[in-house]
Give the backbone structure.
Amino acid sequence: MPSSSCFFKTKLVPVHATSSIIAMKTFVATDGKVFTDRSLYRKYEMETQYTFRDKKSTTLTKKPGAIQGQPFDIANCSDCQILLLDHCDQVQIDDVTNSKIIIGASSGSIFVRNCKNCTFTIACKQFRARDCENCAFYLYCKTEPVIETSKDMRFGPYNGAYPGHMTDMLHADLDPLINKWHAVFDFNDPSDTQKNWRHLLPEEQDQMWCPFGKEDSCIPSFNSPESKVRLPDKSLVENDSDDEYEDAQSMSVEESGTLHTIKVYGHRAWTIISQTVCSVQAFCLGLIISGMQLPNKMLSS
């Protein structure tokens, strides 16, 4: 019988041998740099691939497929044109001046802070702006936009288009027909006097922004419900009484707001019906599968 010391010697494995057996997990960044620490890898990737920082007088572009649902940061840029033409997660925009920015579709929140003299074309789930001044926003927003400690803010409907934009909207779970761009809430104006912001009139709004050439927008350009339809000057209307002119004016305004309301609620109703049908189909499919499995269980028993 072997001694105890001999027995243990046969079971021990040198430390250097075990270390060579265990493979160290690595993380490879987009530019080829290798990391063994996941947090460092993520931080490096965010800074190099999903951030525009400290840029001046240049055009910065992320083409379709370059972001693919990742968050994005824009910080300390001036006199730039910035294009994020893809679906993304949360976007933070800080300390940007005299620039023009387009964001295709954000499935999360877009935060705009400390920005001045900029024009934004943004599609997002939630919109928040703070400490901004003299900025125009052409907006698609799934929920009511919110501003705080800002002034001279102007809002209009989304005015961007590029190939594949509808696909990006779907990836971001954004319904083009439900756009609350006009329902702005100002934390510093609870009485809603609109002293810090206003809606852009149709004649004030910029033309469509199509970075890759002329393209039809997948987002209907709804003006605010209270905006009035332009009518001919009263002095130019011949052979019409005052009452007829006023009736035409009120009818045009009512038609504009009513048409928007019908489209929105009609789409909501269709969405509810579609979801109900899908639920019923799933329930019936479950019953069929259960019925198919029952004979097998009976046979096996």
The longest strand covers residues 100-113.
